[in-house]
Amino acid sequence: MRHLLAARDLDASDIVSVLDMADYMVEIGSRAVPKVPALRGKTVASLFFEDSTRTRLSFETAAKRLSADTMTFSAASSSVNKGESLRDTIETLTAMGVDAFVVRHKSSGVPLAVTSWTSAAVINAGDGWHEHPTQALLDAFTITRSLNTRDLKGLRVAIVGDVLHSRVARSNVHVLSCLGASIVLVSPTSLRPASIDEWPAEHTSNLDEVISEVDVVYVLRMQRERMDSAYVPSLSEYTKRYAITAQRVAAMKSDALLMHPGPMNRGVEMCVDPSEVPGSRILAQVANGVAVRMAVLFSVLGGTKSQLAQGAE
Ligand code: CP
């Protein structure tokens, strides 16, 4: 991989390669000193123009575990506030010797634009409604490790909530369907993209009709910051129809997984304490995010699995 801009650029074998490499990274993370010199001498810059907890900190942890130097750019305290353009910002940081940019932006397509202003590798850490490829890879990693297989044929996954605004849904539908899973998108019609019939997924508005039949319930965040008009009659109506409640947990298969990309709106889409749901993988998703992002950084910066197995010095 030269860059990672979209999950859609990956086929099943690319996805499995990243997940296999992430297995090595989990092992590194379990060591007393969870650090290898694989990316010594490389510099990874995180450029977040939109808020983040999990993605930014897990990329920075991943880079440090591989011994890369890290540079954190905060738009709020940068010369962007004096009118410096994104292009000038990228060219400035490239001149400082950045090898990989990790980019989050509220506008779709910004990570792709960045590739034309730098010779460094570019990783999309979430762009607008478009894609969040490392989230989908870490979700697939979490599911496949829970089931002990990369082959998801026969697995049925419900992705529930605000599909319209969700880059996580777009990336996950591609990655999970590449691995063989069948997907049902569950959302109010007002939170469904116009192109939904072209997605490799079924769709319904009725969560209660499918919740007892699926193997994974993947709950999306209600993205109130992206809503420029009223998409649902009220949040309480949305919660009544789509939130995970104790009653809905009781209706799930006994071995079904419960997932959420975070951050969660407790009391809106999540009305149970997930730590009390045996199938919850929400904190496993966070932990696996570090290993998967180590694998992605290692791949875009030219590492190979065999090199890592030998210690990567
Ligand atoms: N899932 C996710 O992207 O979380 P953050 O916004 O905290 O990075």
- Radius of gyration from CA coordinates: 19 Å
Query: What hetero molecules are bound to the protein chains?
Result: phosphoric acid mono(formamide)ester
Mean pLDDT across the residues is 94
User: What best-fitting shape do the alpha-carbon axes yield?
Assistant: globular
The unreliable regions are: none
Task: Order the strands across the largest sheet as they lie in space.
Answer: 7-6-5-8-9
Question: Number of DSSP helices?
Answer: 11
Which key features would you list for this structure?
binds phosphoric acid mono(formamide)ester, five-stranded parallel β-sheet, globular, four-stranded parallel β-sheet, alpha/beta, 313 residues
Describe the model.
With 313 residues, the protein is an alpha/beta fold. It has helices at 12-29, 54-65, 86-95, 110-115, 133-147, 167-178, 207-210, 235-242, 246-251, 282-300, 305-309; strands at residues 43-48, 69-74, 100-105, 121-127, 156-160, 182-186, 202-204, 216-219, 257-259. Strand 3 (100-105), helix 4 and strand 4 form a beta-alpha-beta unit. Helix 2 packs across helix 10. Phosphoric acid mono(formamide)ester is lined by residues 52-55, 126, 135, 261-263. Residues 52-55, 126, 135, 261-263 line the site of phosphoric acid mono(formamide)ester (CP).
